[in-house]
Amino acid sequence: GENVEQHPSTLSVQEGDSAVIKCTYSDSASNYFPWYKQELGKRPQLIIDIRSNVGEKKDQRIAVTLNKTAKHFSLHITETQPEDSAVYFCAASDAGNMLTFGGGTRLMVKP
Amino acid sequence: DVKVTQSSRYLVKRTGEKVFLECVQDMDHENMFWYRQDPGLGLRLIYFSYDVKMKEKGDIPEGYSVSREKKERFSLILESASTNQTSMYLCASTPVPGYEQYFGPGTRLTVT
User: Fold this and answer.
1) Which residues have CB under 8 Å from B12's CB, separation 6+?
2) Which of residues 67-106 of B touch A (CB under 8 A)?
3) For B67-83, how does the pLDDT look when each residue is reduced to its tens digit (9 = 90+)?
């Protein structure tokens, strides 16, 4: 089955800096790569996703890049703000359309 | 607005008890999922259902069962709770597999 690894497990940045979270996946048939944000005590919510026919997608301060050859994808957050502090999960959807999640990254943005 | 609800936010049970966790969605979604969330392990799929009365095992089904008698309701059952089932349990639903999943608020289960 699919295996998704996510790094780093914790990330601390200064407000205004950029943050990058990286994920690798194992199943070359995976074709959907969402990113979820989970604030403390709240449910995970989708913040951005990308499909395998696209290399990059941007939504205001967040962007996701996908390298199918290397089987890795990354989340980029620019101009970080304290409200970006949360746990971020990457995921990959295999041929059966089931999501496999990475282990999560706790992002802390220091004011 | 999309809504997934879970029966309890916090639950404390004793070892050996039978535990029911219930999830309800009001979006008429075909597909529903149960995950458990543990630090460093992300979300791991326990069971999913793509239709009423249909169920499929996920990655970690041992010690769990599920029931889906109505489209909007998906229940997770721990037949005999054990301490290693202490965790956060999240329910999710989606209209189509491979698209956005909508999560419930989670149930933090403690088994003592």
Assistant:
1) B109, B110, B111, B112
2) 90, 96-101, 103-106
3) 999 999 999 999 999 99
